[in-house]
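Below: protein 1.
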Amino acid sequence: MLMAQTPAKVPDQPDTKTKVKVKAKVKVKVKVKTKTLTKSRIEIKSTAVQMASGIQAAEAALTLAELAIAERVYQGRLPCELGAFVTLTADASAPGYFDLQINKLKYRMFPVISSTGAIRLEDPQAGAVWLQLANKSMLMNQKLGKRLADDCMNPDQAIVAEAMINNPPPSLLDAPLAIAAPADIAIK
């Protein structure tokens, strides 16, 4: 006598009816996620608007030291090497802020305190840095890792640069001058 055996169900393989039900549930979940994404986009936009307002409020709050740096920034159309020009103008509506333009690039710069004493303006969003030294100024892009303009000079900087050519300062790599020891101190 033979007994008929039905194949055992494998739990990993649901029957056709179950598959249909699973697909229907997935569709419902997708619709719910779409509504959630819509809400989160609205929340993101609202947050962005609030952050922009906060940034605008922070712009007005430069420290006295930063405002002092801003007073020493050379402004105007500055000629640079290779025939380039940088135009640097103060923003009348926000004291201490500057608009810098080179070719078609525009940056909104503000002063940053530096440990070297160089005048430094930055646009952190674009990665631009304007460094003003006694003899020249330069524009760098930190994100790209390159200089956009070098040897930019206003007339005052040109005078200092000419003086440095005629009477160069001592090199940091030169040997220091020997310091004479006082006569009353014996060197052993």
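Below: protein 2.
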Amino acid sequence: MIVAGACVQGTAHLAAAQGCQDAFKAVDLGGAAVLAVSDGAGSRERSALGAHLAVDAACRVLVQDLPDAGAAPERWTRWIAGRGQRVVEAYLRAVAGVLAADTGAAPPERTPPERTPPDPGALAATLTAAVVAPPWVAFVSVGDGFAALLTRDDRGHLVLPPPAGPAPFLSSPGAALRVRTFTVWEPELGGVFLATDGLAALALDHPSVHGLPPEAGPLPAAGFFAGVAASLRASGGDAEPLRRLLSGPDAARTGDDLTLLCALAGEG
């Protein structure tokens, strides 16, 4: 399995002297992989740290007790549903620890009733994560990231579209109840791609491009994911093709930070 990712600071962020607020992390388990991307809230000063805490929490939780690839569908569905809530809880614990260390305050569970605990929204971030264990892919999502699959015949499928309305952050009230989890069984799985919302303008087409009404929702841009997969296979998994893509003129026009992370199944 080839696992590769890249993150590039957006041109608007660069012009405003604002650091990159995206983060990604992957754990290669040989025949399986855990992927996570996060986008820190642009209006929050410490959201870049929140994004790194988010991907770290997701990978730590999702590598635990991974079902076998041959497990029943019900096993995969129950497992990822439970893990989704645990990811949010792990992120909130990490954020609380950071804020307590900064302020010298007690962690929330030991904060006196009269003292207001630090606001986790200071490190607000989204999360899109996946466990790739062919033929299974299990997803966890909070926020506006998106995910696509590529089959072995190079057909791209948008399995997790960006939300149509305002999306929550991991630090939003009730985030553990708003986390989206689902599984996909694809015996012809060729690759899995996770992206932050800044990449949507480059990787996704408006339905009108394909002669469809707006309610059809976005679709993978023709050849985008297949082209990325071909470049990574040709490079032997070196992420340089991804960095060039995210640094190119088309990507630069979005102005936002851009992150793309993928796992490509072995051929044959």
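The mean pLDDT is 86.
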